[in-house]
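To: structure subgroup
Subject: Chain for Friday's discussion

All,

I'm putting the inputs and outputs inline so they're searchable in the archive.
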Amino acid sequence: MSTQNTFIRHEKGKSGPVFEILIPKEPKNRFKYIIHIMKNKFLSAILCLVLFASCKKDITELPDPTQNGSNTFGAKVNGQLWAPQGFGPIPASNLLEARFIGNDLIIKANNFASSPNETGFEIRVMGVTGAGTYSLNSNIVHPSFAASYAYYVKRNLTPQNEWVTSAAKTGTITFSRVDRSAGVVSGTFQFNALNLYNTPEPLAVTEGRFDIKLQ
C-alpha cells in the first residue's frame, strides 16, 4: 500500500501506545470541482467563437465615394459586395494602402475575414499626373512595372486563382482627387479580367471606389 498522502496518529492507550494509519478521503465536492473546470473551459471556447464571429461583419453596402482621405475601399466582385476586412479581433496593418513610387501609384486592399482563404486587389497606375481617367488595358505578367493594370487574387496561403486586366479584358480608373501635399487619393474604378490559370473564369469588378491616405 502506498504511503503517499497518508498520516499516522499516535495515541497512548491503557495497554500501551496505539498507532492508527489515516488515509485522507477524496473531497466530497471533487465531482463538482471537475464540472466547474469543464464548464469554464467550455464557456471560454464559446466566448472565443462568439468573439471571432462578432468581428466578422457582413458587408451590406459600399462606402460612400468621399474625397477626404477616409481610408475606404469597396467594389462589387461578380455582383458580390467586397471591402477590406481583418480576421476576427486580430488587427491587420496591411488591409488598405496607397503609395507613390515616382509618378506611379499602387493601391492594395485585402480581405482576411475567412483566413486562410483570403482575397485581395492590387491596382497599379503608371504616370499619374492628376485627376482624370486612366486605362487598364495592357498585356502584362504580374507583377509588372511597365504598364497599368488591375489584379485580383484568391489565396489559401498561396494564390489559388488570379485575375489581371489585359488588352482583351480591360478597365479604367478615374481619379477625382490626387493631392500629394495632403496625402489623399480618391476615385472610382471598374474592370474585367480572365483567370490566369485553371479553367478560364471571367471576373467583373463594378462600382469600385476608394478614398485613401497615402503612405
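Points worth raising on Friday:
Helices lie at 30-55.
Residues 44-55 have pLDDT under 50 and may be disordered.

D.
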